[in-house]
């Protein structure tokens, strides 16, 4: 990635719906060059997808919780991850070091819904201990970072 690619990715992170012509004007490049660079960034996997970020509360998901999961043995990991991948209320899942194996971010409508999700998770084969934290307020929530650009030395 060079400085222009970096600027393209930074602009797309702010607004993935920006027109190529506007982006080209912003970074002083031709429209066709911007489109070619975007295609290359997509093909290389740097840009994986484009999405919509929604406001969970406005959608009715008033409760966000973080749940730590400890498995009894690593042999249960594949089936647990398969279950997590399919569950619509589990927004993210991180494999961890330390006392717990996984951290889940769960968004749902109510504590009753969270109780059902928790019960369902506990019923998964190999799930041992869980610890759940209710999120009171989100102070920062970005989905990926773009590290500072550093010119390559020649």
Protein topology:
Layout: H1 3-14, H2 20-27, H3 31-43, E1 63-71, H4 77-86, E2 90-95, E3 102-108, H5 111-122, E4 127-134
Antiparallel strand pairs: 1-3, 1-4, 2-3
Helix pairs in contact: 2-3
Tally of DSSP β-strands: 4
C-alpha termini separation:
15 Å
Largest sheet: 4 strands, antiparallel
Strand arrangement across the biggest beta sheet? 2-3-1-4
What is Rg?
20 Å
Low-confidence stretches: none
Q: What coarse outline follows from CA principal-axis ratios?
A: elongated
- Please, what is the average pLDDT? 93
H-E order: HHHEHEEHE
Overall structural class, as computed from helix and strand content, comes to alpha+beta
Number of helices: 5
Proportion in helices: 25-40%
Beta-strand residue percentage: 15-25%
Describe the 3D structure.
It is a single chain. The chain has five helices and four strands; from the N terminus they run H-H-H-E-H-E-E-H-E. The chain has helices spanning 3-14, 20-27, 31-43, 77-86, 111-122, and strands spanning 63-71, 90-95, 102-108, 127-134. It has a four-stranded antiparallel sheet, covered by helices on one side.
Short descriptors:
single chain, alpha+beta, 4-stranded antiparallel β-sheet
């Amino acid at each position: 990635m060079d400085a222009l690619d970096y600027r393209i990715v930074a602009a797309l992170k702010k607004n993935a719906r920006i027109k190529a012509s506007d982006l080209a004007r912003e970074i002083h490049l031709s429209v066709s060059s911007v489109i070619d660079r975007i295609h290359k960034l997509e093909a290389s996997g740097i840009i994986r997808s484009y999405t919509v970020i929604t406001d969970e509360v406005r959608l009715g998901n008033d409760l966000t919780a973080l749940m730590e999961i400890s498995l009894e043995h690593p042999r249960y990991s594949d089936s647990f991850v398969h279950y997590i991948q399919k569950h619509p209320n589990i927004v993210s899942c991180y494999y961890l070091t330390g006392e717990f194996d996984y951290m889940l971010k769960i968004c749902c409508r109510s504590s009753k819904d969270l109780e059902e999700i928790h019960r369902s998770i506990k019923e998964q084969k190999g799930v041992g201990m869980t610890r759940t934290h209710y999120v009171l307020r989100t102070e920062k929530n970005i989905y990926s970072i773009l590290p500072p650009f550093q010119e390559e030395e020649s």
